[in-house]
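Form P-L/3: holo structure prediction, ligand iron/sulfur cluster.
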Amino acid sequence: MTDDARRRILERLKRVRRADVPLPGELPETIVFDDPRAKFAEMLRLVGGTPLDVADRDAARAMLAELPVVRQAKQIVSYVPDLVPGTPELDTADDPHALAGADLAVCPAEFWVAENGAVWVTDRQIGQRVSLFLAQHLILIVPGSQWAMQMHDAYRRIGSIDRPFGGFISGPSKTADIEQSLVIGAHGARSLHVVRIG
Amino acid sequence: MEHAINADRFTADAERTGWHDQALWFVRVKRDRMANALPEWEALRTRAAAIKAYVNANLAELLERFETQAQARGIVVHWAETAEDHNRIVLDLLRSRGVTRVVKSKSMLTEECHLNPYLEKHGIEVVDTDLGERIVQLRKEPPSHIVLPAIHLKKEEVGETFREHLGTEPGASDPQYLTEAARGHLREKFLAAQAGITGVNFAIAETGGFVVCTNEGNADLGVSLPPIHIACMGIEKLLPRLEDLGVFTRLLARSATGQPVTTYTSHFHAPRPGCELHVVLVDAGRSEIAANPAYREALNCIRCGACMNTCPVYRRSGGFSYESTVPGPIGSVLGPLREPKKYHSLPYACTLCGSCTDVCPVRIPLHHQLLSFRQTLAEKKLIPWTKRVGMRLTGKMLGSGWAYRLTGRLARWWVPKLPRFLVYSRLNAWGKQRELPPMPKRSFRELYRIEPPDDRRR
Ligand code: SF4
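OUTPUT (holo model):
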């Protein structure tokens, strides 16, 4: 069935192919922020997240140890164990369902985007990608030196995708489906801290 | 179906109509704030439209490219010519793996195909996990908006629905409390699901992957727990290159809800280790639209909902008045393209104000399409004969100088003398719900003759 469908759909579409429609070339000139670092922090706050900037990993470790979401967490899944130690059974879980009770996930991210407070995360160093969505709270650790001005820049950085999963995360999970009132913590993380190191 | 009759029913509750109108306008204002903050906004829209024009012109090649790339990454690609094919493919996939519990994130395509009732009929539980969609699913209603499925409901009504189905406190209507209840309820569903179904916002021919955007994170939860992910997409969702996502991710959330980007913009490029990832490519009338030069730009649509939020008719008549999966301006183009007989009244649910065209991030000339549809439908004799004959006569009258003058004179003389019940009768749609302006004593021509403009007064 699907082979016939494929053939017929493609045949119909080939009949209406037009060779004279070009792909647009050069990008339009895009916005540039004088202080991208501050813009990111402003946008992340706007979408309900908390930016934290620290000088190095030692400072990050000390700061994280004091953070209420870390102190209050009983079960932690951590893929950045040198900064926040995780609960061992969770960090190495083969079944994503094992993370159902996780209070906190600490995950490495690759770069941040100034224009919208988003952070690019892949499953490269994340054992279970569900940790990003299932844990009650989320902390993302990203190198301060790795960033993009806006999304065009971001995709240029990504270049090509070689991981099953990659995503931009901008703030904690949210919904406004009941009378347009914003509620933070719909299904995913109830809070998001983005720690930029350096 | 008649949009005007459905709209009458909605507007009978004036207070609710006003509330609905304001709720949507609020979203439009948020969109404006975001759009105005980007100097390149108009250039982005132009670029998006140009990319989509390329896609519509080269869909076959792009689909083949996508398929090859996706297969190389371990994604299984299926092709469905019709909505029924699509439903059967999904059912077969689930059945052959013994799946009886499925979670699904928002997908207008699966709404369009009526996938839920089909799967339920075959004994599979499907839980919509977008909060708004879950609300309307529990109420056995369709969504009334493509981005804000429960925008027609007040929080008290949601509270009542949740009391009945989720056991929340009677009378409770605080959105925070209700969302929390839904979170608990849906977590159980996520953890119990054996497969996850999502829509697709964008698929990339170059890489063979696809992108799903949500704010709640429900799509990601739904496909990161169970071992099977089925993504259903209309064939028009393709983009040529990864870099094109830069344009579309910047436009989508700003246009939809006035956010700088969706909270979760997830790129899927292979199954999780040991798991399955399927993509179902669905035509269901799209290749016909691609072949129709007058309307093919309708395939540009990225389902942001901006045209609905701004439409003076949608805001005051509600999504249900359109009786179609996609309501509002774009729905009024897509509906009659698919089923002209059923949706003949939708192109008339439009004041031709052009606001939809102004906000559409992919520059679909919505109001031009709606106008030209009126002509198409009249030619196909799909509008009521009263309107057809009336329009023909009016056209003749407006086209001839003497007939126009005579009609004007007769109207000025007769209408003020007619009894009310005649002027405000069923025959005069313009006298419905409003007072006609008083008839002037003289026509513009006559006034012009009496008092010609002179330089002094200019
Ligand atoms: S037609 Fe344009 S404005 Fe309307 S939903 Fe589609 S993309 Fe958005």
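COMMENT: The mean pLDDT of chain B is 94.
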